[in-house]
Amino acid sequence: MHGLLCRELTLYLGWSALLVALVWRSWWWDFRVAIAVHVVDMVVFLSAISLADVDRNYASSPFIGFTAFLLITALARWGQRGVLLTACALVLSFGLVGGLFDAFGPTIDSYQFGRRMANMTALSLMIVWLAADVRVTRVSPMPEPGGIPGRRRDQILAGALAYARSTFHAHSAAIAVTTSEEPWVDLYCDRDGVFTHHRVGPGPLTEDFDPDADAALFDIKRCRRILALSDYRLQPKTGPFGHALADACDVSGGLLARMTSASGHGQMLVWGVADACIDDLPVITILSRDVGLALDREEMAAFAQSIAVSSVRNALARDLHDSVAQLLAGTLFRLEALRRGIREGRDPDSEIVAMREALGSEQQHVRTMIDRLRRGIDGNRTTDIVEELTSLIGEMGQHWQITTTITSSCPRLPVSIDMAHELRQLVREAVANAVRHGQCSRVDLVLDHTKDNLLQISIDDNGSGFAAARRTHRPRSISERIEMLGGQLRIASGVSGARLDIALPLPIAA
């Protein structure tokens, strides 16, 4: 019995040495013979346990060690599913062999056999449970590049290539990526630390290597590749094939992964990897996915910047329209009246002084706008909006040479500097529109602070109201300001004039 066991172990050692020579530098054969090798290991294990004389010294039996070796090997190669299948095969095979020995062979110790079965089952369940926690490949996050978010696309891709080379200890890496807005393909390459970027025309650089695969380990010269499918299975393929990105980089073998983002799609290629194997496939899959997410974050940052710039432009346009443009229109109106007065023999001195004061006031207002743009938001500073609008409505009446009144339910109402600016511009635009388009001679302003913390503003004029063709159109600048402040606007227009009813929520602190 011992001679047979020794011959079996000798053959097993020779078989193992042959396998090492076969798969030492070949990821292809390492993958293809894995199942066959695992089956042979199980057969040798069961026969060795059966042939060994373990009745005399159970404590020195290699039984537990061999069982753990087979289960851990299955875990390293195929994850939880491989461990579960191996455990079932071991338990069933060991039970079958024990039954055959009991029926046709030498008598076995039932107690020791049952003990081994229990130990094998317990060890299998333990490793199956542990396998559930290691089935997900973990990769350290990519370093965040410097610079302003939204303007770092090239830095992100350069950093991703350098990180890929470091992760796989590879010589070189490349990324081909398209965008949904441009027809060309951006090709980024890092060869031994030298980064290059150039654009090529539309073509097959980013075509999928397989519609169902996320990554591939390939060797073009030997016509071999192993695909990592979307359902986490590995699929070997043989036969001639080619790939545009590998051809563009003059590469015959390496790792390839699909890369997707909201703004486009592409692929990552890594080559010159020492001792590449199938364990690298989930790593490059996760890495390419992280690059796509980084590009998505960059696209969102660029979009947010675009929205912020557009918002600033619109706000500046509203301010210029409601202040400088309306002042110039009013000045032209007063200059025309001044010319008529001079022709009629009236003294122009008082009107010239009034116009000079209005221009000085507007100059100060423009300087305040510039200062606010330079400094940004005025923080928590507040001002009395009743006082602000009382002063403004008087200036507007004098500027447009109309009668203006203001009525407030409260003597004082503090609001933020930012809100006060918006309200001043809103009232300026409303009065200018009433004079220029409605030819009014009077504007009445009413302020009311309600119990539910709303600021209600009514602007009433005695002009001709909105023309019939314009009654369905809301004043753009006024509407935008009210919407920005979270308020509501109602417009009433008739032959006796127009009325704007505005409701704005005030902060709780006010």
What do these coordinates show?
The chain has 510 residues and is of the alpha+beta class. The chain folds into 3 domains: 2-131; 153-300, Beta-Lactamase, CATH 3.30.450; 381-510, 2-Layer Sandwich (Heat Shock Protein 90), CATH 3.30.565.10. Helix content is 52%, strand content 20%. The chain is built from 12 helices and 15 strands. It has helices at 2-23, 27-32, 34-51, 63-104, 110-131, 153-168, 244-248, 280-343, 349-375, 385-400, 417-436, 476-484, and strands at residues 172-178, 185-191, 194-200, 213-219, 224-229, 234-238, 253-261, 264-271, 382-384, 403-408, 414-416, 442-449, 454-461, 488-494, 497-505. Helix 3 (34-51) packs across helix 4 and helix 6 packs antiparallel against helix 8 (280-343). The longest helix is centred in the middle third of the chain and has 64 residues, at 280-343. The model is unreliable at 53-60 (pLDDT under 50).
Report the CATH topology name of the largest domain.
Beta-Lactamase
CATH class value of the largest domain: Alpha Beta
CATH architecture of the largest domain, by name, is 2-Layer Sandwich
**What oligomeric assembly is this protein in?**
single chain
Derived from helix and strand composition plus strand pairing, the structural class reads: alpha+beta
